[in-house]
C-alpha cells in the first residue's frame, strides 16, 4: 500500500489562529506519533500569518500555505507569492480552494511557478469534470471538494461516492502521477475509510478538527479510518 495523507486546512477561525494553530499542529503530530504509522503523512495549512510560527513548532508534520498568488518577488503589495511562502516555512500550498478559486489559466501558471520555487501543490476541484481539467495542469495532488458539502458534516464520500470514484478515474486518465484527496464534510474515521476505498490517497478537512472541543480526540477519530 502507498502512503496516505491527512491534510488539515486551519482556515482563519480564531480557534485555529496564532497559538491555537500551533496547538492543533502539535496535537496532530502527537497523535500520529503514538500510532507509529510511517505510511501516513500529515499536512497542516495555517493562514499566512502563522506559517513561520507553526513550521518552527512541528517537525513531523508538513506545513503548507492556504493559497499562493501568481507573483515573483518585486512590486506586488498585498500579494503572497511562492518564494515568500517558502521563506516562511511552507513546503507546499493549497490552490483553487472553493473559498479562493482562480481562473484555470492562472491556476496552471501558479502550479508551475510553485514547482519552480520548491512548493508542492494541492489543487482543488469540485467534481469529475473539474478534476479532469485541474489534473491536466499537473499539480501534485487534486483534492475533490463538492462546494455544497464543505463544513456541512456530511461527507462527499458518503453522500456522493460517485463524485470521488469518478474524479479518481478522471485524474488517473489526465495526470497519472497526481494523488487524489477527498474533501468536504469529512467528520469520522468511517468517512476516511470510504474515501480510501473509493480510490483516494487521503482526505482534506477543516472544521471537524479545527473547531473540535477536544482536538486530540478528533484527530484520533480521523486517523482510525486510515
Describe this structure in words.
- The chain is of the alpha/beta class and 226 residues long.
- The chain has a single domain (4-223), classed as Aldolase class I (TIM Barrel).
- It is 40% helix and 17% strand.
- It contains 10 helices and 8 strands.
- It has an 8-stranded parallel β-barrel, surrounded by 6 helices.
- Strand 4 (92-95), helix 4 (104-116) and strand 5 (120-125) form a beta-alpha-beta unit.
- Helix 1 packs across helix 10 (215-223) and helix 5 (128-135) packs parallel to helix 7 (161-174).
- It is globular.
The helix content is 40-55%
Structural class: alpha/beta
Please tell me how large the radius of gyration is.
16 Å
The residue ranges in which pLDDT falls below 50 over 5 or more consecutive positions are none
In sequence order, what are the helices and strands, one letter per element?
A: EHEHEHEHEHEHHEHEHH
With helices defined by DSSP (H or I, 4 residues minimum), what is the helix count?
A: 10
The CATH topology is: TIM Barrel
Largest sheet: 8 strands, parallel, barrel
Amino acid at each position: 500500500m502507498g502512503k496516505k495523507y491527512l491534510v488539515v486546512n486551519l482556515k482563519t477561525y480564531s480557534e485555529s489562529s496564532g497559538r491555537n494553530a500551533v496547538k492543533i499542529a502539535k496535537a496532530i503530530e502527537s497523535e500520529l506519533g503514538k500510532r507509529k504509522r510511517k505510511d501516513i503523512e500529515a499536512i497542516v495549512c495555517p493562514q499566512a500569518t502563522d506559517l513561520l510560527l507553526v513550521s518552527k513548532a512541528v517537525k513531523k508534520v508538513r506545513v503548507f500555505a492556504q493559497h499562493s498568488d501568481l507573483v515573483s518577488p518585486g512590486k506586488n503589495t498585498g500579494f503572497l507569492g511562492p518564494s515568500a511562502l517558502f521563506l516562511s516555512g511552507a513546503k507546499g500550498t493549497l490552490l483553487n480552494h472553493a473559498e479562493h478559486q482562480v481562473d484555470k489559466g492562472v491556476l496552471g501558471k501558479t502550479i508551475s511557478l510553485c514547482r519552480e520555487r520548491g512548493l508542492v501543490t494541492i489543487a482543488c476541484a469540485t467534481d469529475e469534470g473539474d478534476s479532469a481539467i485541474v489534473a491536466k495542469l499537473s499539480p501534485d495532488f487534486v483534492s475533490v471538494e463538492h462546494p455544497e458539502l464543505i463544513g456541512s458534516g456530511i461527507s462527499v464520500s458518503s453522500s456522493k461516492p460517485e463524485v470521488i470514484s469518478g474524479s479518481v478515474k478522471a485524474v488517473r486518465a489526465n495526470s497519472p502521477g497526481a494523488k487524489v484527496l477527498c474533501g468536504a464534510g469529512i467528520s469520522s474515521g468511517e468517512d476516511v475509510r470510504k474515501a480510501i476505498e473509493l480510490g483516494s490517497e487521503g482526505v482534506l478537512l477543516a472544521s471537524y478538527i479545527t473547531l473540535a472541543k477536544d482536538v486530540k480526540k478528533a484527530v484520533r477519530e480521523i486517523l482510525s479510518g486510515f
